[in-house]
């Protein structure tokens, strides 16, 4: 199941005494054939950050520039040290490659890898790591900043090496969250500063580690996607035996504790409601829409990733679908803006959830004719409207979507949703000196992210 983690378990006090947070952090830069700039820095900073929030770093620090044997031994010893209920983070920065559907982590002694066919013999298969973690009864958090481009020739002339990494099957009954620096078919940037783009965004997100994995991943994915204009989109896949997507840390800020939090069964959400509550006062994931007057002709189009792990039916009434815990946007509606309509554009079936200034909830879903959800704001109270764009069904990965903010027609009717922009034709190519699309002067988005 394709979009970071302290799990919530039902365990006895004896289990709590043994459960702890443990991390194995590896960074490989000094490759024989294709050295990298940042993985060692990434691993050093990640190990330091995990230690700050209460993780015991295996080996008393990051393992740097490891060869195949050291990689095998480190993973073996790390998994042998785990107990049921532990929260185990495995972080790897370096080269990784997908070959014939299997992901491999490349050690620094890669001089024997001259062709793609050599990869299985001289690298570590990531599914083996999953198997070892699942056998321990721990919840695994695998973070792979290893989707870097490393083309290898193939003697057969076939194309068995994929670009980036591919999705992995989690063993039955295992609890594992796998964070990829880039989506399948994409590569991750090594970055020009101290850290790669993905790890840099993750380190910033971990300044607030007491959030659920999906909330952190939304922030990281948005930051990297925005920085690369969509060329790199981090993503998450998971298989989780519990009901509540877990957190990386149960406290707040940089408080250090190695205790894995426990939640008794009676305190869990009801079946069908996997989250721990929609945060109506939460910080908007994509920022505040500052609009001072009627939207321009055609309206505003705001990009986002839709959906989440909160069941909107917990709000009661006609609400349904799955949304993020925090709102996606906030719209500060004033009378000068005039009547507005909110709708969505996406290949997925979406829902709209609004929390009004009066504290009421407004929900809309895909119409019976397949039309996008629409919420009109006419004769509405002025103030902050918090907006969630969700999916009708729980999705394994967050689909791309747009939130459309438009003026209502003079008769109060909702205008037809404009079609999504058509893709650029491949031939002929657009002129190189074509002017960029004008920035909409009527609205600004005050980003909640650095």
Instruction: Give the N-to-C terminal Cα separation.
Output: 30 Å
Total helical segments = 7
> How would a textbook summarize the main sheet?
7 strands, mixed
Radius of gyration: 23 Å
The CATH architecture name of the largest domain reads 3-Layer(aba) Sandwich
Give the ordered list of helices and strands: HEHEEHEEEHEHEEEHHEEEEEEEEEEEEE
Secondary structural class: alpha/beta
The tally of domains stands at: 2
Q: What does this protein structure show overall?
A:
The chain is an alpha/beta fold and 450 residues long. It has 2 domains: 13-267, Rossmann fold; 288-412 and 435-446, Sandwich (Jelly Rolls). The chain contains 7 helices and 23 strands. It has helices spanning 13-18, 39-52, 68-80, 119-122, 126-136, 197-205, 213-228, and strands at 21-27, 56-57, 63-64, 87-93, 96-99, 102-105, 124-125, 139-145, 161-162, 176-180, 235-239, 288-291, 300-305, 310-311, 322-323, 329-333, 340-346, 350-355, 361-364, 374-377, 383-391, 400-407, 443-446. The strands form 5 sheets. Strands 1, 2, 3, 4, 8, 10 and 11 form a 7-stranded mixed sheet that branches. Helix 3 (68-80) runs parallel beside helix 5 (126-136) and helix 6 crosses helix 7 (213-228). The two termini are 30 Å apart. Mean pLDDT is 76; it is low at 1-17, 155-161, 251-256, 261-275 and 418-450.
Brief account:
The chain contains seven helices and 23 strands.
Features:
450 residues; alpha/beta; Rossmann fold; Jelly Rolls; 7-stranded mixed β-sheet; 6-stranded mixed β-sheet; 7 helices; disordered C terminus
